[in-house]
Amino acid sequence: MPEKISIPLMSGNISLNDFCKLIEFLKSAPIMTQSSQVRAFEEEWSAWLGKKYSVFVNSGSSANLITMAALKHLYGLGEVIVPPLTWVSDIASLLHLGFTPVFCDINPQNLALNTDQVLQKINSQTKAVFLTHILGFNGLDDRLINTLKEKQIPLIEDTCESYGGTFKNKKLGSFGLASNFSFYYAHHMTTVEGGMVSTDDEKLYQTLRLLRAHGLVREATDQNLKEEYLKKYPDLNPDFIFAYPAWNMRSTELNAFLGREQLKSLDANNEKRRKNSELFYKLLSSEHYQTDFDFEGSCNYAFVLILKNKNKNLLDSIKKSLKEADIEYRQGASGGGNQLRQPYLREIFPEHYKDFPVTEHIHFFGFYIGNFPELEEEKIKKLCALLNVLALKEERKT
Ligand SMILES: Cc1ncc(COP(=O)(O)O)c(C=O)c1O
After folding, report:
1. Cβ contacts of residue 132 below 8 Å, gap of 6+?
2. Residues within 6 Å of ligand 1 by CB
């Protein structure tokens, strides 16, 4: 029986100091519904990211949905290129809105969309490329960015798992027409539940503001836009003009207050995660596990563990030993692996999952393990020693 190492997927993401500050905030009997804290959090987030506008919502999935809804209302329906290794809401948002998802496999070095395949699949129907930066790795390259610019196809960055990461020293999430973030507890920082959409595009920003709150025109900050609707619909009460068939995806002052506190320590915490990650991949056996990721600009809240070979025995012994050592893990890396294997997509594309061998390998032979700021060096060393011994043992058996 291996020694208990005890590594949860995430720990200490809300500090005692955060709780105390929240209590102080509540003692002031503040407004609780979306108000000045939300506005301040949006402004501070935009400044941190280097974008003009941000819209705070109640989850990363809501961020995905209103981004794609805004694209639909502004540019119309068509095809959207997505990876099969992503979160369910990246694809579900397309299906709900009537976009056609077009899948490309991933690049094994950064686990994001394979640029060659994306460029092959772009056509006159392509409305956007919806790229996911996986578990802290940068998924962008110049070829993709430049081609999309040339062809005027919007890039949407799902940055829910990778904020703090960079490409060419510029923050991930600052390249696309819009970028989405999640502040769920297990991410780089948290508002318990929460998400953000950031953009430089004024028109998109106004549309996102409306879509977040029932489609209400009064949510716009652009006076001209409001007046256009008032002129066109004189029979309607100005407080109740619903421009779009939308949802309520607002968050609250409490979540925004927590987000503002969390943002203050995000960069320092990410630095600790970077150090942990460096140590993990330095100690991990490169003979048995993938260690040749493209680490430049990465900022991982999880250690991505991918077996080099399709060794089922090693896979089983890792799962058993991690459980015994009280180390939490998720198999399949981001979103549980190949989304095309999931029931909701099997109904539409029954056999399509077979067409993506890199994603398939990660689905079965990939894991992630928690990497958080307070994780002790000693535990990382023990974890790597455990994984390396398991690989050697399996090798000896064959
Ligand atoms: C890549 C990615 N996109 C979107 C989401 C959805 O975020 P949320 O859980 O806040 O809805 C997640 C969730 O973890 C994610 O990993």
Report:
1. 82, 83, 85, 86, 87, 90, 112, 113, 139, 158, 160, 161, 334
2. 59-61, 64, 86-87, 89-90, 132, 158, 160-161, 182, 184, 195, 334
pLDDT of residue 333: 87
Ligand 1, residue 184: give the atom nearest the CA: 10
pLDDT at 398 over 80: no
Cα 378 to ligand 1 centre (Å): 30
End-to-end CA distance of the chain: 22
Which amino acid is residue 294, in one-letter code? D
pTM above 0.85, yes or no: yes
Nearest to 192 by CA among 207, 182, 200: 182
**Å from CA of 295 to ligand 1 middle:** 22
In whole angstroms, how large is the CA radius of gyration of the chain? 22
Percent of the chain's residues with pLDDT above 90: 97
Atom of ligand 1 nearest to the CA of 133: 1
